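Predicting holo structure, adenosine-5'-triphosphate bound.
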Amino acid sequence: MPNENSLTANHLTNGTEPLTNVNQLILDSVAEGIYGIDLDAKVIFWNKAAERLTGYHISDFRYHNLHELIHHTDPHGKHVPLHHCPVYHALNSGESMFVKDDIFWHKSGSSFPVEYTVQPIMVDGHHAGSVITFRDMTEKLKTDEIIQQWEKLSVVGQMAAGIAHEIRNPITTLKGFLKLMHAKNEYNPEYYQIMDSEFDRIESIIQELLTFSKPQSSYYENHDIKELVQQVVQLMQPQAIFKNISINTAWDESTLPIWCIEHQLKQVFINLIKNAIEALDDGGEIRIDVVVQEGEAVIRVKDNGLGIPPEVLAKMGEPFYSTKEKGTGLGLMVTFNIIRNNHNGHIYVESKTNEGTTFTIKLPLENVNTSR
Ligand SMILES: Nc1ncnc2c1ncn2[C@@H]1O[C@H](COP(=O)(O)OP(=O)(O)OP(=O)(O)O)[C@@H](O)[C@H]1O
Ligand SMILES: [Mg+2]
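Done. Tokens:
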């Protein structure tokens, strides 16, 4: 049984009947606009928030249809006939409905974005009308836009720093080869080839930065992971030689195809080998093993350098975290992102202070028979 403060059929069949004071007080204390319509689409209650948001008073609907006052035109400027209005559709079908990305019109002639729900009003088991609850989304949309803009700027910032970092590596390689050629005082066609391809890399990286708004596609292709590692080792060799470090590799002969973005995986090995070189004082060894385990290529980059204390281990991969005077602290962040997010792989690190560090990367092996 409805009590005396409940909506009654009487309220719904007779639009002039006011709500009880208690019900009107409750409705008026709510921030959302709330109104009710009977089965003839006549407004039977209208709260204070609805009045504030639309500028209309309930008496304005005595001679005017509510739809034609607040909901006549859609966000694209097209007239919305009554029979296309979701509120009336829900009213006729007795269904609940949630509508977003719509607009309502203020008495002043301006519109505002809304989100609303339509719920059937049931009286004694009979459908007697609908209650519509609407929210002004202006502030929410503004906040969303600010967040999106902020996110974009933060990604641009991270990209720029990451790319600056990527350019630094080939420049270091170029410097190494220049020094080697200078020390030997002879032209070496092999060095020339490597230097030339490093200039190409710098060029393509700069191109990537310039076209950030329309990012250049980085193509996924099948590459033998051992070949990529081998090429990187060749690139890093000059830096290692200058520090009296040997880079040793071990793998068997079979091809290990990985579906990957070549320059990104190379970047990973450059970052890990560079860290290993920096962790080794004069002299030392970097070992790189590639094996197959459970359908995955497992690549280990191991150094016998100074190791990583637990407090550094906990922070590794955080942007800008570096214990080095000239480190940007982006190498591992970029590395983790490339392996985990772009190549569906895993990366782990084990380390003991003064004994050394091993980075283990696992990448899914591409089935050579799979057609892409
Ligand atoms: N093989 C390693 N041995 C010892 N410490 C390491 C090793 N690899 C990484 N670290 C530690 O992790 C930190 C973060 O490494 P990361 O590569 O992200 O930045 P970075 O090397 O300091 O700077 P850069 O941006 O030039 O790479 C390093 O500063 C270092 O303390
Ligand atoms: Mg580094």
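Confidence is low (pLDDT under 50) at residues 1-16, 212-217.
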